[in-house]
Amino acid sequence: MTQHAAFVRAAMAKPEPPPVASRGVIGWARGNLFNNWLNAALTLLSLFLIWTVVTPLVRFLLVDAVWQGAGRADCLPEKAGDAIGACWPFIGAKFAQLIYGFYPWHLHWRVDLTFALGAMLLVPLMIPRAPFKTLNTILLFGLFPVLAFFLLVGGNFGLEHVETRSWGGLLVTLVVAVTGIVASLPLGILLALGRRSHMPVVRALCVAFIEFWRGVPLITVLFFATYMLPLFLPNSWTIDALLRVLVGVALFSAAYMAEVVRGGLQAIPRGQFEAASALGLGYWKTMGFVVLPQALRLVIPGIVNNFIGLFKDTTLVLIVSIFDLLGQLRAAFADPNWATPSMLFTGFAFAGIVYFLFCFSMSRYSLFIERHLGGGRR
User: Fold this and answer.
1) Cα dihedral 144→146→151→157 (10° resolution)
2) What's the gap between Cα 287 and its chain centre?
3) Mean pLDDT calculated for residue range 273-294
4) Which of the four, 226, 276, 351, 353, has the lowest number of CB atoms within 10 Å?
């Protein structure tokens, strides 16, 4: 009987690489940008719009920009050439004014120290795996505001007193935004809980508060807090103008934050409340340990959206004679030594970059937190 030799492969054959057209940049483009005629048309239209808008912007900000100079003469067409770009020496000359406002120049170190301390306490708190979270939270939200107040205002411990009307620029923008953000979240949570309360008086008061502040524009709130509120106070009472703005902004933002949090509370299934009740947890423990952590995780996009809107709304304080970053920029435009055709566009481009960096950072960090907290949902 003839024996036939047989070959049996001892290992699996290595898979062949996919065709070039389905991998790498080409494969990604074919699968995402040109997978059908509609996406291909939209991709080409988008590329055309990007080329139309981005190219002149890059030329103005970088290619044709003037980077060195000591006055308006360096940014005029006669010296810079026909294609006039951004006049960045103007920003360099006014940089201190845009950051500190009219804060005394020899005391800028106090503002810098405040910024540095805030960053040193905020960055570890934003890192999920950083240790000593409780201590860090106490220092940031308990000790730092007091320390920042004494550093910026002075008048104690040998520090020279600086009135808030001398503040300005990015300093005022950050003070108003951070105060509003930090104060609005806990107030919004309390208002949202009060609106869902079973006690009629508490619910009615919270509803009235929320609807009143949501029905009034922020400009009206700032006008009332700055110009009309002193008319209703005794003559012996004097409240700092910046403090009135801070209170108005915090209350206004808290009303909107309350509705965002209430939406998260309504999304929690009733079974969570019943399970907490079965374990013997009271109302506050149920809210603090069971309901609120889940509700706040669901509404992170809405919360950060409110924060971003509040940060941009700080520009409205200009109408009540508080010079934030945009206000100081407008004041810098009045300097005839820098009066050039591109000064206005350069200033607003710089302000736009600053606001974009802060808002984009908050947006990206919110996405990071969503991914980090949503691990169990994947």
Assistant:
1) -130
2) 27
3) 89
4) 353
What is the SS3 string spanning the chain?
CCCCCCCCCCCCCCCCCCCHHHCHHHHHHHHHCCCCHHHHHHHHHHHHHHHHHHHHHHHHHHHCCECCCCCHHHHCHHHHCCCCCCEHHHHHHHHHHHHHCCCCHHHHHHHHHHHHHHHHHHHHHHCCCCCCHHHHHHHHHHHHHHHHHHHHHCCCCCCCCCCHHHCCEHHHHHHHHHHHHHHHHHHHHHHHHHHCCCCHHHHHHHHHHHHHHHCCCHHHHHHHHHHHHHHHCCCCCCCCHHHHHHHHHHHHHHHHHHHHHHHHHHCCCHHHHHHHHHCCCCHHHHHHHHHHHHHHHHCHHHHHHHHHHHHHHHHHHHHHCCCEHHHHHHHHCCCHHHCCCCHHHHHHHHHHHHHHHHHHHHHHHHHHHHHHHCHHHC
Q: Kindly list the distances between the CA atom of residue 156 and the CA atoms of 103, 114, 116, 159, in Å, as whole numbers in the listed order.
A: 17, 16, 21, 6
> pLDDT at residue 99 above 70?
yes
pLDDT tens digits, 45-96: 999 999 998 888 888 888 888 888 887 887 877 655 566 788 899 998 999 9
Determine the length of the chain.
Answer: 378
Six-digit token string for 190: 């309390």
Q: Which residues contact 258 (CB under 8 A, 6 or more apart)?
A: 187, 188, 189, 191, 192, 195, 206, 210
Residue of 57, 96, 67 lying closest to 329 (CA atoms): 96
pTM above 0.85, yes or no: no
pLDDT digits over 157-216, tens only? 888 999 988 898 999 999 999 999 999 999 999 999 999 988 999 999 999 999 999 998
Predicted confidence at residue 201, as pLDDT, reads 94
